[in-house]
């Protein structure tokens, strides 16, 4: 009996120990998707510390190691920070500290994305993204940029100080157990910041803005539709009316040399990622080779893998607007400037608003967390904003290989050894994944499935963007502004300019690669003859200064007219269709004695120029037709409509649905007949996203209604009017089925919404979907489909005579419990703005002051 | 009902029942002391002290119900009172709880926030209870 009792006690003890161990294991290490529960949820240092962090700042003194002098940081009621530093070093250090204090998880996520280290924190599901980023080489480029900075360069000094600031914050938060809650929920701590991390984030942005897969799309189109039809429907020059901001005259000069590409042999080991490279060897044999058509398997393999990147990694929507007018067109008599970059709209937002002052700098604007500069803003004398140039920056090469010569490719008359970079990618909950990246002279090999395809991307070349941006921050006039931009390589950007002396200008800075032979919009032969020969010289790139129109503007349209003597890209790769540019050009041309209110109205304008052009043709096509009661109702809506895609407009719904049907009714039969591989490449699906098709259909409807494209293959002859009538009828039936009721009740807001997803892709941390006006072609752009996730990420207006204002859809803090997480969204949504101050003006509305001391 | 078994079969259980329980007063004081220790340790991020506190309670207190109550209370109070204090100080604990629940996939709204807080309290209680079970088992093994 005692023995049984003893056994019972032991069993009880073992069960207790087992339960404690299991729970202790979960608490210490987590399990599956669960974070380490003990450290994540304990009330002293777990996620709950975010409650204190969510409180608005109060007057306080803080010790920040590395500062040379005391620094004062003020916060206004909306969270904008005003840094007053006595040395340039301290300005950048304080900015690093503030960025980390407010956006550390966002910064860590962005550097991890570019460095291929996401799988380390989220597991194997992020491996495809990590592998692709390591292939593309953002980390290699960042290292090269860092190595190229001279010891005395302002950018190097700024990066070092900024890094110290970030690390001061990381150290402080680690010591206090107050790291942002996402670190605790994911169960890891951030590694120390390095200058290369900042340059990787710069690379993230370059990739978002500049990397395209369009040559691969073209290859699939050529294989299905045929070359002639592809080039007729996806031409180099747009078929519709355009508004180039630089109408010429143009010059043509020999190509200018480009910065050397990143060498394949890298000396460094970076944060646990090991590099190993074989030396280049030149083989003895030579040969002639004509490239085959791009292999479908190779193309689809690359496209499939690119779809595994995080949603914001490659920007697919429309981009941005900026413009300036000189004093002859403003009420104040001084120049005015506006800018609203369209990016993926996320929470936290991509921007952090800041003003800063030191002996060499005095600026105000928006910065990207992780970088020590204001990207869009103003100093005491000049103001600037950016849009994407959209010229072609990504070129794919079909390497000539031979199964009997493994790891070799044929280039410039000889067989060469590919170089190999070796990486070990850490994976949460698993073994590190080994990755080999073969390199040719063009760049990384992305696939060997069916064909060896490499990519040469201008964003992979080192670009001294930090140096340039610091130059802009210091510039006092257009000459200094332009001089700074000469060194800007990527991503190519339209820099609009206005100064306090009455001048305006626009420069489309960046590299414009010149391909001497072949069709650059298709995968090119890798044997040498189609290699990039240089770039368009800086003096020849699109640019204007104080034009006689008194207006400069860009909205991702082709910047130059058809007479421009260089190839810079196609309608699909990847200039905007031009509707926003047209609206802006018309408004500014008519504008007189303009004020900030006029600019606000234009930035928030939701008129669809394409609709304004096409609807009269549609109404004409419907005249005299027998229509149902619902069709008559829809017709009346359109007849009374001014093209405004307002949230409460029913006509907007009719228009949008009609246009989609019109596109589909015209092109889908051709797609079906040619077996365009939409299933494997959804980007090729007929719809408004294929920019060129909108331009084609617009041009044909307006000027060539009998175009053969309207007649489906093997079917009876049709004209634009026939197809429009069919599309209208289908649209009305569609809306009736989807929304029911009277046509007047089919408001645009029932079909269309905006959403700002969380950067961590957690639905509850995002905003929306919320019914919204606008579409992809309105100045107030809403891109990404019927639930738009891209659009104006920052609205900025400068009137050198009266003031400055701005707003962005988000807030300064990444802490979702903070009032500054999303406090500016209601303002942004309603088209309202907040004043943008310099440090010296930041008296009113100051909420708190931090005194930072060494 | 005659089961045909001798009284000795049940002797062990009767012995257990005969164990004298710790008084209520001592139990309450022990729970409070445990909560204070857990709270203090959590301030430094030492969540595992909750287990240790439970072990001590399990070793010291007599009676299953007393041990369960004391350890459960120490865990819950030691983990939730600091959050209550944060809320009293004006920190947005409720809003944060809702966001944490969202991250965990629980949903949104007041219910989800309550769930996040409940998970925190439950975790504290379970850690203490496991420790207490272990403590009590050790005491019994020691005789």
From TrEMBL, chain A:
<comment type="similarity">
    <text>Belongs to the peptidase S45 family.</text>
</comment>
<keyword id="KW-0378">Hydrolase</keyword>
<dbReference type="InterPro" id="IPR043146">
    <property type="entry name" value="Penicillin_amidase_N_B-knob"/>
</dbReference>
<protein>
    <submittedName>
        <fullName>Penicillin amidase</fullName>
    </submittedName>
</protein>
<dbReference type="GO" id="GO:0017000">
    <property type="term" value="P:antibiotic biosynthetic process"/>
</dbReference>
<dbReference type="InterPro" id="IPR043147">
    <property type="entry name" value="Penicillin_amidase_A-knob"/>
</dbReference>
<feature type="active site" description="Nucleophile">
    <location>
        <position position="320"/>
    </location>
</feature>
<keyword id="KW-0865">Zymogen</keyword>
<dbReference type="Pfam" id="PF01804">
    <property type="entry name" value="Penicil_amidase"/>
</dbReference>
<dbReference type="GO" id="GO:0016811">
    <property type="term" value="F:hydrolase activity, acting on carbon-nitrogen (but not peptide) bonds, in linear amides"/>
</dbReference>
<dbReference type="InterPro" id="IPR014395">
    <property type="entry name" value="Pen/GL7ACA/AHL_acylase"/>
</dbReference>
<dbReference type="InterPro" id="IPR023343">
    <property type="entry name" value="Penicillin_amidase_dom1"/>
</dbReference>
<dbReference type="InterPro" id="IPR002692">
    <property type="entry name" value="S45"/>
</dbReference>
<dbReference type="InterPro" id="IPR029055">
    <property type="entry name" value="Ntn_hydrolases_N"/>
</dbReference>
From TrEMBL, chain B:
<feature type="transmembrane region" description="Helical">
    <location>
        <begin position="108"/>
        <end position="134"/>
    </location>
</feature>
<feature type="transmembrane region" description="Helical">
    <location>
        <begin position="68"/>
        <end position="88"/>
    </location>
</feature>
<feature type="transmembrane region" description="Helical">
    <location>
        <begin position="22"/>
        <end position="39"/>
    </location>
</feature>
<keyword id="KW-0472">Membrane</keyword>
<protein>
    <submittedName>
        <fullName>Uncharacterized protein</fullName>
    </submittedName>
</protein>
<keyword id="KW-1133">Transmembrane helix</keyword>
<keyword id="KW-0812">Transmembrane</keyword>
<feature type="transmembrane region" description="Helical">
    <location>
        <begin position="45"/>
        <end position="61"/>
    </location>
</feature>
């Amino acid at each position: 009996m005692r023995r049984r009792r003893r056994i019972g006690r032991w069993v009880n003890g073992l069960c207790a120990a087992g339960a404690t161990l299991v729970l202790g294991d979960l608490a210490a290490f987590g399990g599956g998707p669960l974070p380490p529960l003990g450290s994540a949820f304990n009330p002293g240092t777990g996620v709950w510390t975010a409650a204190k962090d969510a409180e608005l700042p109060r007057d306080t003194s803080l010790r920040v190691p590395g500062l040379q002098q005391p620094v004062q940081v003020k916060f206004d009621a909306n969270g904008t920070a005003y840094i007053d530093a006595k040395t340039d070093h301290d300005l950048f250090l304080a900015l690093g500290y503030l960025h980390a204090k407010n956006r550390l998880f966002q910064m860590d996520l962005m550097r991890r994305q570019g460095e291929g280290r996401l799988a380390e924190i989220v597991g194997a599901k992020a491996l495809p993204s990590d592998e692709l980023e390591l292939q593309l080489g953002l980390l290699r480029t960042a290292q090269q940029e860092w190595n190229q900075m001279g010891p005395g360069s302002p950018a190097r000094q700024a990066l070092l100080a900024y890094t110290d600031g970030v690390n001061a914050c990381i150290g402080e938060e680690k010591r206090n157990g107050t790291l942002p809650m996402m670190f605790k929920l994911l169960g890891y701590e951030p590694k120390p910041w390095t200058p290369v991390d900042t340059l990787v984030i710069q690379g993230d942005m370059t990739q978002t803005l500049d990397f395209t897969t369009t040559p691969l799309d073209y290859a699939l189109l050529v294989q299905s539709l045929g070359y002639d039809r592809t080039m007729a429907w996806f031409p180099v020059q747009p078929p519709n009316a355009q508004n180039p901001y630089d109408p010429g005259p143009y010059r043509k000069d020999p190509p200018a040399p480009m910065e050397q590409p990143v060498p394949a042999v890298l000396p460094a080991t970076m944060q646990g990622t090991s590099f190993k490279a074989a030396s280049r060897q030149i083989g003895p044999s030579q040969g002639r080779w004509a490239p085959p058509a791009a292999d479908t398997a190779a193309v689809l393999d690359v496209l499939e893998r690119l779809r595994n990147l995080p949603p914001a990694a490659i920007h697919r929507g429309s981009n941005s607007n900026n413009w300036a007018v000189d004093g002859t067109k403003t009420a104040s008599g001084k120049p005015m400037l506006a800018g609203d970059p369209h990016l993926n709209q996320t929470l936290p937002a991509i921007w952090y608003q800041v003003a800063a002052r030191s002996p060499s700098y005095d600026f105000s604007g928006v910065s990207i967390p992780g970088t020590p500069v204001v990207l869009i803003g103003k100093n005491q004398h000049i103001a600037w904003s950016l849009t994407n140039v959209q010229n072609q920056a990504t070129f794919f090469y079909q390497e000539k290989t031979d199964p009997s010569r493994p790891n070799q490719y044929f280039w410039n008359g000889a067989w060469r050894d590919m170089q190999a970079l070796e990486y070990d990618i850490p994976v949460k909950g698993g073994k590190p994944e080994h990755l080999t990246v073969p390199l040719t002279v063009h760049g990384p090999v992305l696939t060997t499935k069916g064909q060896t395809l490499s990519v040469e991307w201008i964003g992979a070349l080192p670009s001294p963007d930090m140096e340039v941006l610091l130059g802009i921050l210091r510039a006092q006039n257009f000459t200094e502004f332009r001089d700074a931009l000469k060194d800007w390589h990527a991503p190519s950007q339209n820099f609009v300019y206005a100064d306090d002396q009455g001048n305006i200008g626009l420069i489309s800075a960046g590299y414009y690669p010149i391909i001497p032979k072949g069709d650059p919009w298709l995968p090119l032969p890798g044997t040498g003859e189609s290699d990039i020969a240089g770039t368009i010289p800086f003096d020849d790139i699109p640019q204007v200064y104080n034009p006689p129109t008194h207006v400069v503007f860009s909205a991702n349209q082709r910047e130059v007219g058809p007479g421009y003597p260089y190839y810079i890209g196609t309608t699909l790769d990847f200039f905007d269709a031009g509707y926003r540019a047209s609206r802006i050009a018309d408004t500014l041309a008519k504008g007189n004695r303009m004020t900030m209110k006029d600019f606000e109205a234009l930035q928030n304008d939701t008129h669809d120029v394409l609709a304004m052009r096409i609807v009269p043709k549609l109404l004409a096509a419907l005249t005299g037709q027998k229509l149902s009661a619902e069709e008559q109702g829809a017709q009346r809506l359109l007849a009374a409509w001014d093209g405004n895609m307002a949230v409460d407009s029913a006509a907007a719904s009719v228009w949008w649905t009609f246009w989609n049907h019109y596109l589909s009714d015209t092109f889908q039969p051709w797609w079906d007949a040619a077996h365009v591989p939409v299933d494997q490449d959804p980007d090729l699906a007929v719809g408004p996203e294929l920019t060129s098709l909108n331009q084609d259909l617009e041009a044909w409807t307006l000027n060539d209604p009998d175009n053969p494209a309207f007649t489906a293959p093997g079917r009876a002859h049709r004209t634009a009017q026939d197809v429009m009538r069919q599309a209208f009828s289908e649209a009305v039936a569609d809306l009736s089925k989807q929304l029911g009721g009277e046509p007047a009740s089919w408001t645009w807001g029932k079909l269309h919404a905006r959403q700002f997803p969380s950067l961590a892709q957690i639905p509850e941390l995002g905003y929306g979907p919320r019914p919204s006006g606008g579409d992809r072609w309105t100045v107030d752009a809403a891109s990404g489909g019927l639930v738009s996730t891209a659009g104006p990420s920052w609205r900025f207006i400068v009137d050198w005579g009266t003031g400055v204002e701005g707003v962005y859809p988000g807030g300064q803090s990444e802490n979702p419990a903070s009032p500054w997480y999303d406090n500016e969204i209601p303002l942004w949504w309603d088209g309202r703005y907040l004043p943008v101050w310099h440090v010296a003006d930041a008296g009113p509305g100051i909420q708190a002051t931090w005194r930072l001391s060494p | 009902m005659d089961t045909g078994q001798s009284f000795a079969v049940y002797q062990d259980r009767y012995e257990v029942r005969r164990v004298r329980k710790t008084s209520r007063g001592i139990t309450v004081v022990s729970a409070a002391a445990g909560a204070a220790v857990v709270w203090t340790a959590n301030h430094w991020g030492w969540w595992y002290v909750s287990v240790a506190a439970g072990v001590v309670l399990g070793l010291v207190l007599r009676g299953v119900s007393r041990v369960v109550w004391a350890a459960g209370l120490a865990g819950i109070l030691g983990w939730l009172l600091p959050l209550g204090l944060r809320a009293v100080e004006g920190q947005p604990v409720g809003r944060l709880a809702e966001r944490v629940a969202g991250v965990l996939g629980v949903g949104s709204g007041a219910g989800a926030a309550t769930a996040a807080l409940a998970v925190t309290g439950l975790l504290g209680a379970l850690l203490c209870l496991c420790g207490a079970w272990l403590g009590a088992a050790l005491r019994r093994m020691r005789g």
